[in-house]
Amino acid sequence: MKRVLTYIFLAVSAVVAVSSCYKDELSPTSVIMDSVNPETDFDRWLNENFLLPYNINFIYRYEDIESDMEYDLVPADETCARILAKLVKFLWLDPYTEVSNANFMRQNSPRVMPVIGSGAYNTNNTLTLGTAEGGLKITFYVTNWLVSRNYITINYDNGVDETEGYSVTINSMDDINFYFLHTAHHEFGHILNQNKAYPTDFNLISQDQYVAQWNTLSDSEALQMGFISAYASSQPGEDFVEILSYYITSSDEEWNARLDVAGTSGADIIERKLNIVKNYMADSWNIDLDELRSVLARRYEEVESIDWSDF
Ligand SMILES: [Zn+2]
Q1: Could you tell me the pTM of the whole model?
Q2: Which one, of 64, 61, 73, lies nearest residue 27 by Cα?
Q3: Ligand 1 mean position to 237 CA, how many Å?
């Protein structure tokens, strides 16, 4: 059985971030690119920056996408897909390479990365932001929100054909971080756990506290119980990757603000979990989580310097 691990956002709430995992089979549908599509500059960039270094097939053409037929989904806008590809490379793939080696991501990254324009809305008022399947595939949703929700503004130069270049102004790095990068690091945490299991000691820390109705908890309530987010309280595997993702994508200020809300006992539990996560990353993957976090913090400051106009 291949596992599908999902990251879901509670659609009815602006403040509660939640997610869910379930089991399913990896789709048998072919992901081979449709030959009727001429290769574009973006395709060539993807070959050089995703396929060759990381062996990742970044799939943005809807006709090639092995999407989930349970949902009404909208294709990704190509410009949004381009921008997401650069953000994912700069703030997820390359940082891991920077603190480990070129082979780490090549060996452990998902082989297939479909990108969907819309969210995948569930019947329980939640919204799936990402899924990780069988250690091989991570799907991103809501790609078109980059523009439609004004997280970024695309500026085309006067007189320049829009296919030839543009600049990007980032209006809300917090939203980009939450909807895409937190999702990426969360799902990648699942893939690492699928390849090398984490110590079961982790599961004991909050063993009687996990709740099926995680979406009824506020983040504050969850923090005080020793969970870094409401969704972390759903099950130990989610708890583990939520700690991992929140820790490396948060500044000291943001992380400490969560611990302040958690209070002394909640913060103590979260710190104990974080220690296990750090030791797992060091022992199983030879990755210093604090070094990775520092690299990410530096890169968040450098996002504005990304060259958006080379494809
Ligand atoms: Zn998950």
Answers
A1: 0.85
A2: 64
A3: 7
How many angstroms is it from 27 CA to the middle of ligand 1?
A: 19
Output the CA 191–ligand 1 centroid distance in Å: 10
CA of 2 to the centre of ligand 1 (A): 14
Q: Three-state SS for 65? A: coil
The 3-state DSSP class for residue 213 equals coil
Distance from the alpha carbon of residue 236 to the mean position of ligand 1, in angstroms: 10
d(CA 109, CA 54): 7
Tell me how far the alpha carbon of residue 272 lies from the centroid of ligand 1, in angstroms: 20
Locate all alpha helices (DSSP H) within 26-154, ordered by sequence. Answer: 41-46, 52-54, 78-88, 94-99, 102-108, 145-148
Q: How many whole angstroms from 31 Cα to the centroid of ligand 1?
A: 23
The pLDDT profile of the chain, 311 residues, written as one tens digit per residue, is: 344 455 555 443 333 333 434 334 455 555 555 556 788 889 999 999 999 999 999 999 876 666 666 777 889 999 999 999 999 999 999 999 999 987 999 999 999 999 999 888 887 777 788 887 777 889 999 999 999 999 999 887 645 555 556 788 899 999 999 999 999 999 999 999 999 999 999 999 999 999 988 888 999 999 999 999 999 999 999 999 999 999 999 999 999 999 999 999 999 999 999 999 999 999 999 999 999 999 999 999 999 888 877 66
CA of residue 103 to ligand 1 center, whole Å: 25
Gap from CA of 186 to ligand 1 centroid (Å): 6
